[in-house]
Structure to design on (431 residues):
RNA sequence: GGAGUCGUCGCAUAGUUCGGCCUAGUGCACCACCCUGCUAAGGUGGAGAACUCGUAAGGGUUCCGAGGGUUCAAAUCCCUCCGACUCCGCCA
């Protein structure tokens, strides 16, 4: 939710942001109007209510005829209060709707425009070259007995898979490595619920733009989360946090579920885009003036992971039009995927400033002792998708894959993953 | 799933019988000052969350798990929901 003070005193900030996002500028004026209507109704109600309170007190003290007379008088007033109160409810609901339509104002420097207007901040690492025809991650995964799509589909349908053998181990190794990095950086590990109540899903803003991406269980009125960000953001909802010890950093591990509606036909091969995967997510609560610095730290931790894994990548500053409504700025890191001849997103980190915290009512006590919303940030530290880049980048001609050094301690020192069967690309995985 | 007990301003509690004296009291913790030769005790005062009116000083309104209802008036009565605990049942 946007800052109502900004709406009142500095609406141009919001107008410029809406413009950059390619969203409707008129929403700002709608909200201003709704705010005025709301405050007017509130004043009317409160004055009547104050009057009624005085009367009620008198009634309580009076007796006999005097009481009867007072009662007759106050009854009309009571009706008026009721009406005024109904108006307030109505007008506040309208205000709420109007204000929630406005996205978080983007930070200075965020490139304006749609998805393709992103700015590449840097490219790191050398793009791998091969003196043989590189295999894609699925072919490698099948040779290694690491990925079993056929059986995933048999059991659960399209976009499901089994990670098996070295594949299963590799994912756990990756997650553990990421967790160790997070611990070094002072994060508190958290294994989060993946089913959440509607108000939490709503509060994190996912029910708006991502509504049809989300699995819903009607029998229990619960949503399956597409990222542990949801639970991590809800963790401190309705709380006043102590920020004197610096930022509160959490590393949330969870399985993530996404319907991938609307991405039909895209990335149908392998495990690039799937309904279920695992992710270690960083989530930070901090003061608003620290948020941008923290955002840079999150990117640095992400880059540290990718570098340790020997991946080449680029960092992009995502364009305003491609930001979620909660994010004021977002950096994506995309790793080079050799067989696609392209960079593919492996991480994303958003600075949500106070927007998300306002919705979830997460505050801290500022210098003057007043409570004020915190800033929240989130970012990926590892996901299943990373296996794609790792396998393809470090493959050798015989279909074996070199284990990046940083991962070896997590795989009992294993240096190379070797194919199960002789080289026949279509070799089915056998049990 | 069944039966029962319960949910009060950071923590702990009073208040709910029988609606108005609740402007929600008290203890602990907290902040400021005073006193005191000292990591203590005592004294005085302050202090919940949110919205809103006002340049300000200072007002007003709301909040007793959440939401409705009854009433001139609800922490208190009624309904629904959420949560905690206890016992029973079931269980990959």
């Amino acid at each position: 939710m946007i800052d109502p003070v900004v709406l009142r005193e500095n609406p141009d900030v919001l107008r410029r942001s809406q413009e950059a996002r390619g969203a409707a500028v008129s929403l700002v004026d709608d909200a201003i109007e709704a705010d005025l209507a709301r405050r007017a109704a509130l004043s009317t109600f409160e004055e009547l209510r104050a009057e009624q309170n005085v009367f009620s007190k008198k009634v309580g003290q009076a007796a006999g005829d005097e009481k009867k007379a007072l009662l007759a008088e106050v009854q009309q007033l009571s009706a008026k209060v009721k009406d005024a109160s109904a108006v307030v409810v109505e007008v506040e609901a309208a205000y709420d709707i109007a204000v929630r339509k406005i996205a978080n104002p983007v930070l200075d420097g965020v490139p304006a425009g749609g998805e393709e207007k992103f700015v590449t901040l840097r490219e790191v690492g050398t793009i791998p070259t091969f003196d043989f025809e590189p295999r894609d991650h699925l072919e490698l995964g099948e040779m290694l007995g690491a990925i079993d799509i056929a059986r995933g589909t048999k059991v659960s349908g399209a976009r499901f898979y089994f990670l098996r053998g070295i594949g299963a181990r590799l994912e756990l190794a990756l997650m553990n490595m990421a967790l160790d990095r997070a611990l070094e950086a002072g994060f508190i590990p958290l294994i989060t619920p993946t089913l959440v109540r509607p108000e939490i899903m709503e509060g994190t803003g996912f029910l708006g733009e991502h509504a049809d991406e989300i699995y819903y269980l009607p029998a229990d009125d619960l949503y399956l989360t597409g990222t542990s960000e949801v639970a991590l953001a809800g963790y401190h909802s309705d709380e006043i946090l102590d920020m004197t010890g610096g930022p509160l950093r959490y590393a949330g591990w969870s399985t993530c579920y996404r319907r991938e509606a609307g991405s039909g036909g895209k990335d149908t091969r392998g495990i690039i885009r799937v309904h279920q995967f695992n992710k270690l997510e960083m989530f930070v609560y901090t003061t608003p003036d620290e948020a941008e610095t923290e955002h840079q730290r999150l990117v640095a931790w992400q880059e540290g992971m990718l570098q340790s894994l020997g991946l080449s990548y680029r960092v992009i500053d995502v364009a305003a039009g491609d930001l979620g409504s909660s994010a004021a700025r977002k950096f994506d890191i995309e790793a080079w995927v050799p067989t696609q001849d392209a960079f593919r997103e492996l991480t994303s980190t958003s600075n949500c400033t106070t927007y998300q915290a306002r919705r979830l009512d997460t505050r801290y006590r500022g210098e003057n002792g007043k409570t004020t919303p915190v800033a929240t940030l989130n970012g990926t530290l590892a996901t299943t998708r990373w296996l794609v880049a790792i396998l393809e980048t470090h493959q050798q001609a015989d279909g074996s894959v070199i284990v990046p050094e940083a991962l070896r301690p997590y795989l009992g020192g294993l240096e190379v993953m070797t194919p199960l069967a002789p080289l026949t690309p279509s070799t089915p995985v056998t049990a």
In short: DSSP finds 13 helices and 18 strands in chain A. Residues 39, 42-43, 45-47, 49-50, 52-53, 55-61, 70-75, 77-78, 197, 240, 369, 371 of chain A lie near RNA strand B (CB under 10 Å from a C1'). Chain A has a mean pLDDT of 90. The first strand of chain A starts at residue 119 and ends at 124.
